[in-house]
Amino acid sequence: MPDLMLIGTAHVIDLSLPLERHIKNFSPDLIALELDKQRWYALKTQSKRTEGPFYLRLLARLQKYLGDSFGSSPGAEMMVATNIANTMGAKLAFIDKPILHTIQGAWKNMPWHEFFGIITESMISFVGGGDSNITNSMKTGDFSKELEQFSSQYPSIKKELIDKRDIYMSTNIVKLFRTQNCNRIVAVVGEGHVTGMAEKLASLDPKIVKLSDLLKNNDNSVSFSIEI
Known about the structure:
The chain is an alpha/beta fold. The chain has one domain. It has 11 helices and 5 strands, in the order E-H-E-H-H-H-E-H-H-H-H-H-E-H-E-H. Helix 1 (about 15-25) packs parallel to helix 4 (about 75-90), helix 5 (about 100-110) runs antiparallel to helix 9 and helix 9 packs across helix 10. The longest helix has 25 residues, at about 155-180. The N and C termini lie far apart (about 45 Å).
């Protein structure tokens, strides 16, 4: 019987200890990351260069803002998971869509009112304004209210950046069970993807480790970074 664990993370400093603890206790055959190969290599080499037309660079920056704000931004924790896979002798897999495909889909289907709205919010965040409730959500690891509000304000963006990727990554996990001769898989994804992926993979009855669970078991200091 396939055994799956979904771990929700965010762009948080010093989550390595609880993340390592959960992964090693589960003893997976394979660790799946919310990355594609290009983004994994960029993280590994600490490259932040984004190439392409202006609209792609702009939306890439917006995706990072959204990811950091709602617990969906792969960062140092993905490299921690990579190192754990190496030390355990577990396989490593990248399950997310290529970043350019995601951004192009978001651009193509985004109504103008959503585009101007998200630009305004990202600029307010950049200069230090915005909703102070996000600070409390960062401390607790619970972004449910923010995600609900975001879904209401920006349904097309959420569909492209969250919902479609939930389906894509869930499908890839099922494929990994079928093709990689694995019985136990850990998927490390942004907190904003955990609920949607858990629903898509309900037949596998996945074990869920939320960002709030990692924070409760974290002995180190925690800080968050919101960038554009």
